[in-house]
Amino acid sequence: MADLSQRKDAARKAAFVRRKAAFERGGAQAGYLSEVLAGYRGVPTAGYMAMRTEIDPTSAMEEAAAHGPVGVPVIQAAGQPLKFRAWSPGCAMEPGLFGAKIPTAGDWMVPEIVIVPLVAFDARGGRLGYGGGFYDRTLEGLRRVRPTLAIGFAFDAQEADELSLEPTDQPLDLIVTETGVREPV
Asked: What angle is formed at CA 11 by the lines to CA 75 and CA 5, rounded to 5 degrees?
């Protein structure tokens, strides 16, 4: 297990460097994500509030919110799945745990589509996050109740040849980047 942990840590470090370079190049980012979400108008969707050098889904979330409920993740505690609070463009926000912005008030919602931030992804739909397991626990719980579409949102530069994954790592159903949409192979 220590070897797997070391491989994941090394993959994270390399991916952070690639992500930072892609972020600094800037440019339009969420166009393809908007196109994908347009095919699911009205379906409860969870996005996220970008931090540091994450690719920003906000414009796609704003479009989705015009047609149905959109939420953002709220960390409850270490080792627990995420909960999602209803979000709308311009709503009052405050820092949550680990600094991610969350709505100051609002109802809880259950998404059927989850836009997943990530550090690295591979062509098989593998995802490497920050290491807390929040999205893996959350997707596992949501998928136990009903099909839940997990859309990884990242820069092309975040793709890795092959990630070392654990049985608890939840796969992505789609990967959307600044240049297109990919289905795992």
From this structure: 70
Neighbour tally for 89: CB within 10 Å: 12
What tokens appear for 152 in the block?
A: 């990884």
Residues 41 and 67: beta-carbon distance below 8 Å: yes
Q: Which residues contact 133 (CB under 8 A, 6 or more apart)?
A: 79, 168
Q: Please report, for the domain that includes residue 105, its CATH number.
A: 3.40.50.10420
State residue 33's pLDDT score: 97
* Angle 66-69-75 from CA coordinates, rounded to 5°: 130
User: Is the model's pLDDT at 36 over the cut of 90?
Assistant: yes
**Amino acid at position 6, single letter:** Q
Confidence category of residue 26, pLDDT binned at 50, 70, 90 = confident
Contacts of 178 (CB under 8 A, 6+ apart): 22, 27, 28, 29, 31, 32, 55, 155, 156
Query: Per residue in 104-136, pLDDT tens?
Result: 999 999 999 999 999 999 999 999 998 889 999
Enter the pTM of the model.
0.94
Q: Which range of residues forms the domain containing residue 118?
A: 2-182
CA dist., res. 59 & res. 29, Å (int): 9
Domain count for the chain, please give it: 1
Average pLDDT on 43-51 reads 97
- The rounded distance, in Å, linking the Cα atoms of 110 and 46 is 8
